[in-house]
Amino acid sequence: GQQVMQIPQYQHVQEGEDFTTYCNSSTTLSNIQWYKQRPGGHPVFLIQLVKSGEVKKQKRLTFQFGEAKKNSSLHITATQTTDVGTYFCAGPGGGYQKVTFGTGTKLQVIP
Amino acid sequence: KAGVTQTPRYLIKTRGQQVTLSCSPISGHRSVSWYQQTPGQGLQFLFEYFSETQRNKGNFPGRFSGRQFSNSRSEMNVSTLELGDSALYLCASSLAGASVNGELFFGEGSRLTVL
User: Fold this and answer.
1) Which three-class secondary structure string do you get for chain B?
2) B84 exposed, middle or buried (CB, 10 Å; 0-12, 13-18, 19+)?
3) Do residue B45 and residue A100 have CB atoms under 8 angstroms apart?
4) Average pLDDT over residues A73-86
């Protein structure tokens, strides 16, 4: 079945440093979504990408959808302590899985 | 408007018991999907309901079941609980559906502990 892997699994950064998480799917995706889950919280939708090569920005966050629509990335510029949490990508799956979430990247920001 | 409401927030059960979790979606949302979140397996899709019909099902045993009512509220049931069922169960509602270009709005979750 479809697999969606994210790397790295964990990332510790000093406040002010940049951070990037990568999402790789075993199959082509029609769209990809990104969610953020704060510690003890629930996933919150950040953005959806649909077009091949699409790049979207939200303040310090930059999202990119690969040309082949099998990978995506989230880049945070100058991290802040409010960026702490786990970032998940998610895409339409096949077979049993209608939605497949990535394995997640847990970001810790050291003040 | 009110967000997604899940009850109960926390519960403790023993092996062999059953549990029912409830989810009230955002008003106007007809799709409700359920997810199991554990540290080891991440976020796993359980099933999705749309207008009272199960539209999709994840790869979970038959002990996991669900339903949706005419007011879009949904319940999921886990019978014959096992220790491995301990997890955070998240419900999400959306307008169009879990993967039909639909943003998912998650509830706070129900944290189940099986002893």
Assistant:
1) CCCCEEECCEEEECCCCCEEEEEECCCCCCEEEEEEEECCCEEEEEEEEECCEEEEECCCCCCEEEEECCCCCEEEEECCCCHHHCEEEEEEEECCCCCCCCCCEECCCEEEEEC
2) exposed
3) yes
4) 98
Residues in chain B within 8 Å Cβ distance of A98: 33, 45, 48, 55-56, 58, 98-99
Q: Average pLDDT for consecutive 10-residue bins of chain B (115 residues)?
A: 92 98 95 92 90 89 97 97 97 76 89 98
Q: Residue B22 in contact with residue B11, Cβ under 8 Å?
A: no
Give the CA angle between residues A72, A44, A97 to the nearest 5°: 60
Among A42, A49, A69, the residue to mutate for chain B (most B Cβ within 10 A): A42
Whether residue B58 and residue A100 make contact (CB cut-off 8 A), yes or no, is: no
B43: nearest CB among A44, A88, A98:
A88
